[in-house]
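Issue 218. Parser rejects a valid record. Input:
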Amino acid sequence: MIKYLKAENLKCKRSFTKKIIILSPIITLLIALLSPLWFEVNGYNFWYVLMLPGTITLLAILINQKEEKKLFYRGVYSLPVDLKKIWYGKLFLISIYLLLSNMLLVIGIKAIGTIFNLPLRISFIKGFIAIIIMLITSFWQIPFSLFLCNKFNLLWGILINFGLGTVLNIVLVDSSIWWISPYSYTSRLMTVLLGIHPNGTPLEPGDLLINFSLVPIIIGISLILAVGFAILTANWFQNQEAK
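Output the parser choked on:
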């Protein structure tokens, strides 16, 4: 499996794909700085509501395009290799890139807040735990986005995973039926862990959205979704044939 991961990473050498790891958190931090007093809250909020799903979609698009430029995957399908492992290699690579990007965000928030003496109420440890949980609850989007881009095209990846996902997140997150949309899971847990409403306003202690009993449940469901989507899409990819 490691060799497949290394091969996928090598394909992204000196490409814009790796630049996304740095650019996404930088853009987020710059936007958050537009309101210095709310820098920390806006940094986290803008990241998990818009930039994280956007980054997942963009990475899926770029990694898919790497193969499409080479005879539309014909070269991959015709190789005597395990297609499932190639697919899993792509999923693991995107996951690692997202982990690095998330870590840069929380380090950036802490560093900029300290340097410019901005209000910081979320500890570094708490922020680090939050970004790890953001990743866990977003992992399922990786195989889903890569499948959309591969099966259809980049437009569907953008429209469904980023466009529709963002709308469902914002509309359903504080409703009674939020649980039907996995896109709401990250935002729902951030209300608990960071005390931030998806609209960017801090929550008061005792707010009904702050329910710690949801944390293990949502994490469990998110992991099941991630594994399920990974297996289903890997099986689909394995059954593809060069045309």
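Fixed in the parser; the record now loads. The chain has ten helices and no strands.
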